[in-house]
Amino acid sequence: MTLEISRETWALKEPFVIAHGSRTETHVIKVKLSCNGKLGRGESVPTARYGETIDSVYRQLKSVSGQICAGATRQSLINLLPAGAARNAVDCALWDLEAKQKKTTVSNLLRLAYPDSVCSVQTISIDSPENMGLAASKLRDFPMLKVKLNEEHVLSRLAAVHKHASHSKILIDANESWTIDLLNRIAPSLTNFGVVMIEQPLPAGRDEELRGLELPVPLCADESCHTANDIEKLVGLYSVVNIKLDKTGGLTGAITLANSARKTGLDIMVGCMVGTSLAMAPAMVLATGASYVDLDAPALLGEDRKYGLTIKDGKISRLDERLWGGHIP
Fold it and tell me: Cα-flanking dihedrals φ and ψ of residue 44, to 5°?
């Protein structure tokens, strides 16, 4: 088996602003695995919040390239690489390669529905209430919008979005920027703006402050949930977990996390980092069974990969097997 690792930069349509910071481009790792004339591909997005950079992930992959080329499997990867972006890229490439070798699809290998009718939120970045309202007006036909917020102007920003997209449900993503006092203060007003869930209001590590809290909407763990090993500490604090392949270390770990969450009664959200459609494709397989889906990253790019995904009024186009995850005759 041969391995090719590359670093790529993709420009965004406009600045993407969240509580952690802003960006105008995204940096991704692409992996290609070739074996007996078949090619599998995978993509990951290193994230500074988790101590990763494009160069550190590239070095991680180079350090184990010999073992990968010697025939590493998805299970042996668990011992080669920690959960994170490096393992994600290789794991997804291995799934793609296996599907092509067996002349089937990854969905068939997992006995899951093929990603043909998946609905996703689309994200509104942090901006002035006026500009966020304008962004919402362009997305008013989406059943659900994801609204990035920090600790400032929470209610005025929500009001502006709701005013211009009054039929859309709102999923708030605070990206660890709130305090328990702020959460308690704004909680009674949330349902007035169509809010149906709040994602990661408090910093990871302060989750216990949520215990016993009575809120009108459920909470979702994102930065506090990486792998199945995190589930036990989240029970009783959150109702939903956000599964991202760059946190779990690939589709293999994501499936394990989803199964563990469901066994404890936690609901599933499938999310993403800011990557191309190649990074979204494996998550699409898992998203067919998720209650919440946030795979809108390709809509944020100035340009996407060939055979990429599109989103219209909240519905993602059918996954093209020429992109990832299926045998091409």
Answer: -135, 165
